[in-house]
Each structure stands twice: as C-alpha cells, then as structure tokens.
Design goal:
By secondary structure, the chain is an alpha/beta fold. It is 28% helix and 26% strand. Strands 5-6-7-3-8 form a 5-stranded parallel β-sheet, with helices on both faces. A 3-stranded antiparallel β-sheet has the order 2-1-4, with helices on one face.
Length: 202
C-alpha cells in the first residue's frame, strides 16, 4: 500500500511563500482533499506530492520503491494532450505505456466517448477535452490518483459520471483532490486546509 510522508514541506516563489511546515502522511486507500483559496498553492502541493515539481524545503518520501510515473495517475486543467491525435489514438497510445483497469472499449462506453473517437482532440469542446484527460487518469491502474479541479468545464451529468467512476473503479487507490468545489470531493474523508500552513504576516 502506497503512503506519502511529508515532513516540513515548504514552497517559495521568489519572495512569496505559498505554504510552509506541511507535515502530513497520505495513505492508500484513503481519500483526501486539499482546500484553499484561489492561488493558495493547492495545485502546487498536489504536483509536489506527485513528483512533478520540487519543493523548496522539507522532505517527501514514498514507501514504494518504484519510478514515480508508476505510482500516480494525474489530471489537471493545465495538462495538454496531443492536439492532432484522435480520441481513439490518445487512448491507444496512453495504454501502450500504462496498465488499464478495464478494456478500452468499455472505457469509451462508460465515458460516452464512443461518438467522438475519430475526432481530433483539438476539435473537442472544453468539457470533452477534460473528460478525455480525466478518463485516462481514472481508468489507469496506479496506487495513487491525483486530481486537480477534476470537473473543470463539466455539467451536472458529467460530474455525476466522475463520482460514479470514483465509486466503481477507484476505491482501492489513494486519492488526493485539489479543489474548491464541494461536488468534486464528496467522497473524501480527510481535509487539508492550506490556510493553516500559510506564513503569518505581522
């Protein structure tokens, strides 16, 4: 079972300290949400936990000795996929390198992406682009799942699809969500409030 141990983590950008002295342990299969105001550092902390960016101070350790890309699936509004690839090609390419939870055809069916398989990613609406990215993350078999504002550009039906997918396919994973939207983390039982790790200005 994967666990991530943070000891006195801090992140500074030039003169601004986003957060400091974050000491916390995330354990599979628990579900966590990182809460905070816009631009408070939620996405940054999530990326540090996933090894995508470096922290300024402190230590992050994983109890599983595997390459970082094998530990986590990740979805974020900042992610970019290959614009010239069709939806079909994106899925087929992704799962050449990643282990899938369910067959690809079932993924398309569950996510209602079958009508869009031959469309290029660049031709999709913003909501469909997010659904492709989120589907790839949700359907990949990894110990950890890191989700940054997972329902960006979603309507109510797609948000419900996301919650159902989490319930059906992701219960065994460590999940960490960075979000301000309550509908995105209804399944999370642990809350990390970034405000408590902010520097105090006098």
């Amino acid at each position: 079972m994967l666990s991530i141990s943070c000891t006195n983590i801090a992140k500074r950008y030039i003169k601004e300290v986003l957060f400091k002295e974050v000491t916390y342990t995330f354990e599979q299969p628990n579900k966590y949400v990182i809460l905070g105001a816009n631009s408070s550092g939620k996405s940054t902390l999530l990326k540090i936990l996933g090894g995508a960016i470096a922290h300024t101070k402190g230590e992050v350790t994983y109890n599983v000795q595997k390459p970082i890309e094998q530990l986590f699936s990740f979805c974020s509004p900042e992610m970019h996929l290959l614009d010239d690839f069709t939806v079909r090609e994106l899925f087929e390419l992704h799962f050449q390198f990643k282990e899938k939870k369910i067959p690809i055809a079932e993924q398309w069916q569950r996510s209602n992406l079958t009508p869009f398989l031959e469309k290029k990613y660049s031709e999709l609406s913003s909501g469909l682009k997010n659904k492709v990215k989120l589907s790839l993350a949700l359907y990949t078999e990894t110990p950890g799942l890191l989700l940054d504002e997972p329902c960006t550009n979603f309507d109510e039906a797609n948000t419900q699809w996301y919650l159902t997918s989490i319930n059906d396919l992701c219960q065994h994973q460590l999940i960490i969500v960075a979000s301000n939207q309550a509908s995105e983390y209804t399944f999370c039982t642990e809350q990390i409030h970034l405000q408590q790790f902010k520097p105090i200005h006098t």
